[in-house]
Structures are given as structure tokens and as C-alpha cells.
Specification:
2 domains, DNA-binding (chains A, B), mainly alpha, DNA-binding, homodimer, 10 helices, Arc Repressor Mutant, subunit A
DNA sequence: TGGCTGGTTCACCGATCAGTATACCTAGGA
DNA sequence: TCCTAGGTATACTGATCGGTGAACCAGCCA
């Protein structure tokens, strides 16, 4: 299926059901029968579209990653000051977190699927690698002295707020504040 | 069973097998049959000891928490300078992380078990609450101006390095360095 | 000696798991 | 008109899931 071509309606419905079910209840805990039922589709169709549960999981993560990158890029593009742009992913995180009370779908997927050969691993690692690279590029563009070290620290702060999201502490404001101060101190 | 009394040898063996299997392969992916087999014990005995898989999971996390707190307390006690003590949990993290390539067992457990009523939730939340409180107390003892905000930020850094542990980036050195600078700047 | 405790062996329960087989239906294009 | 692609419906596989029932056995203490 070329990227341009629209996905079949059945495929879209399966993917939508998979996204909510996998994220809300966990990947291992959700069976393919349940996803087929929730998307109003036969299990046969599901397997014709995705081939296996593992590939469906990878597709679910890839779709989620796509939506998330769009949100981050929007937040970055909205900034006029290059220094503000460096912490723009944290603004996106505020929106994203509100709809994601169960933490980071990619970290959760790695937690559930230990096998490094599982196709979900590539997707999850690529997502974090992309964010780290984005932080580095934005930091360099803003004229930071140590873009690599700064990017690593921003990534850790980002993942830390995501990871503590499901916990009953509100860590976001203090973290965003710290991220901004780090950038300004390094410019 | 009182706390003083030694656990039965069967119970200890079950718990040991559960620790490695649950952490390495995931909680949902590991069945009670497998744990019974690895600990050289009957499933009947396992259920006599723990009652249900959910309680066995909670016991596994509680045992892991106990070992981890011991490690952290040791690291704190080793410090002479109160300012160094604030970041002592990060020294413990270096040791801990080396044996824990699959990230934080407690975060992973929350990822796999969405039901807030699951007994594992209490254990996991208590673990993070304890660490947050420890950071606050250590910061206050070191004379920090804003112990609450500092503790939140240190917790986020701590969870961030744990969460990025399974990823192919080395985030620990930059993070520990940042944590130390934060403490010194706030003293 | 007798009873209790903690452990054993083994068979079993209904439900669910990922994945497949077979056959039928239907809309669209050549 | 016929073929094909994508979908449906239903039934099925063997394995595994969490959890239970029943009978038995060895050591320990009174």
C-alpha cells in the first residue's frame, strides 16, 4: 500500500480500536478477538490487513508516533524565538499528557515486549531517537554552547514527566520551568 | 506470618523465581505455571502461599522495593556532606541500573496493570512517594531554599534516567551532573 | 501415639490465547 | 458477462491462562 493511497475503511477502524484498547488496557492483556469485535470487523479481515498481532502492535505505535510528531512540530513552528522553540515539545507534552493518563505508550510497549526482535522495538526506539535529535537541532539553532548535553538532559526531563504522569504527583510545571531555565542558561 | 519470622523456603524460592521472570519477561506474559516450574514448587503450594497471581505480583514488587530502599539508604548514609546526600539516590541508581536493563519494575507494572484496584498499584505508588519524600527531607536537611520544587525535579530526573535505561542512549552521566548542580545552586 | 502443618502429586475446570480453514457475498472494473 | 479484491460468517486448532479439588505424605510437637 503506497503512502499516498488511503487506507481501507476496515483497516482504519481496526487501527483506531487497537489504539484505544492497547493503550488503555495494555498490549498483552488485549486479544485480537477483542480488537476485531470493537472495530466491527472479522478476525479474518484483521489478519488479512496486518498479518500478525506483532505487526498490528507496531502499526498502532507507528500511528501514535505520527500523531505525536505532528503535535510537536506544530508547537515548534508556533515559536518565534529560537530559544522558546527548544522547549516547545514540553508545551506539546501538556496537551498530550491530558489525553494520556497511562504514561508513554512507547515505554509501556517496551515494558511489555522484552524481545528486541519484536517490530514494536524499532518504532519505540525511533520515536525517542527522533526527539533527542530534535532537541539537539533546536538547541544548536538557538546557539546553545553544549547542544548534545542539553538535549540529553531535556530528553530525560521529558521522559521523567511522562513516566510520572500516571502517578498522583503533578510534576509538569516544575519540570517545564527547569527546562526553560536550562536553555536560557546555555544560550 | 509476622515480619520477624523467616519465610518458608518454598515461599522464598517462589518469590525469587517471580522476581526474575516478571522483571525480565513482563508480568502478564508470565504465567503462574512457569513460576511454579522455575521455583521447583507445585502450583498448589504457590496458591497456598500467595492466594492469587495479583498478590504474588504485589509481593514481588514489595520485595524489590525493600531491596532498593536498602541500597538507597546505604548510599545516603555513606555521605558526609549533607549536600552530597541529596543526590545519593543517583549513586545508588548507577548500581541498580546496571542490573536492571529493562527499566523501572514499578513503572512497568503500572503499564501492564491498568486497574487501579490491583494491589500492585499501592506498592508502586508508595515507592515513588517514598523517594519524593526522601529527596525533600534530604534537601531540607541540606538547607535548600525550595526543598519541594527541588525534590520534584530530582524525582523527574531520576525517573527519566530509569525510563531511558532500556534505550540505546547513555543518559546517566549528564543527568547526575545536572542533579548535583541543581542542589548546589539551591543550597 | 496422635494430630497438625506445609508440602506433594495429579487431574481437572471453563475461558481465552493467536492463528487458520472453508465457504459465501458483493461491488467495481475489464 | 466474468473475474477479482475485500469483506463476511462460522467453525476450528492446540496451547495456555488463572485457579481448584482431592488424596497423600513427612516432620514436628504435645
Amino acid at each position: 500500500m503506497p503512502a499516498q493511497q488511503a487506507a481501507s475503511p476496515a483497516r482504519s477502524r481496526i487501527l483506531a480500536a487497537a489504539e484505544t484498547l492497547f493503550y488503555d488496557r495494555g498490549i498483552t492483556a488485549v486479544g485480537v478477538d477483542l480488537i476485531a469485535e470493537h472495530s466491527g470487523v472479522t478476525k479474518r479481515t484483521l489478519y488479512n490487513q496486518f498479518g500478525s498481532k506483532a505487526r498490528l502492535v507496531a502499526a498502532y505505535l507507528a500511528e501514535r508516533d505520527r500523531r505525536w510528531r505532528d503535535l510537536v512540530r506544530e508547537a515548534v513552528d508556533r515559536c518565534e524565538d529560537p530559544a522558546d522553540a527548544v522547549t516547545a515539545p514540553f508545551d506539546a507534552l501538556r496537551t498530550w499528557n491530558a489525553a494520556s493518563p497511562r504514561g508513554c505508550a512507547f515505554i509501556n510497549a517496551l515494558a511489555e515486549l522484552p524481545d528486541p526482535a519484536h517490530p514494536a522495538h524499532r518504532v519505540a526506539e525511533d520515536q525517542k531517537r527522533w526527539l533527542l535529535g530534535l532537541f539537539r537541532d533546536l538547541a544548536a539553532a538557538a546557539g546553545c554552547a553544549e547542544p548534545d548535553a542539553l538535549a540529553t538532559r531535556l530528553l530525560v526531563l521529558h521522559e521523567g514527566t511522562l513516566a510520572t504522569g500516571p502517578l498522583p504527583f503533578d510534576t509538569l510545571p516544575d519540570t517545564v520551568d527547569l527546562a526553560r531555565r536550562l536553555v536560557r542558561a546555555d544560550v
